[in-house]
What does this fold into?
Amino acid sequence: MKFVKIYSQRSGQPGINSKEYGQFSLSIPVVRKEQYKISSILSYADNLIVANEKKGQQLKGLKKLLMEKIFSQAWRFKGFSDPWEQRKLNEIAVINPSESLPSRFNYIDLDAVNHGKITKRKELSLAEAPSRAQRVAHLKDVFFQNVRPYQKNNVIYSNDSIPTVFSSGYTQIRTKIDSEFMISALEDDLFVHSVLLHSTGTSYPAISSKQLGDLELSIPEKEEAERIGGLFNMVDSLIVANEKKLDQLKQLKKYLMQNMFV
It folds into this structure.
């Protein structure tokens, strides 16, 4: 790959031709048995990677199917039959609760959340904080990304050991119902479609916190909401665990490649 990169840095159209490929020297084990063993190990690693990629797609497909069935109420937990109630978001949650910023905190900007997880944190003092650092997080608060909501880069704040402040690019939702149910309801395709209808902008559609709070959700009784939230939490945990395993397998293959072809 280093060889390809060097040859591809020419002016004009970058690339490498067949003749140049043919001039590259490969290190080949003399004994065919060693060649076979190396290829077998790497092929086995590739098969594990493909299998886990397939499992990941199946888990995501399962979650999508569950979302469709549960939020259309086509499928209910046994013992629950009462109709769901239509409620505005601002009736079942406190939107953007006001609170003074701590002297130091972890700052979460719009690019810091990915697939329901906080992946980046920036420690700041109050003096260093940008003006958009406004949402002081509490345990179980839901943060909804106002910009490009179809990305579903939303998160439940689950670690209150260090003071954390989110950007005003998120709507902070201090829910009165189960947080896991709430974030699942906010990411239901029908609700996201409603959000987009009330958003402004084409390339970067965005909704204000006030408009979001005025939108309606279908809400079941407390116990059913908790059961639904627990189900989606379990599926999400399986998805995250599979993605972690997939990353480990890719790192394993990279390590094998680096050490076998030295």
In short: Helices lie at 2-7, 18-22, 32-71, 179-186, 189-197, 209-214, 222-260. The CA atoms of residues 71 and 190 lie 9 Å apart. The chain has two domains: 31-80+220-262, 85-219. The mean pLDDT is 93.
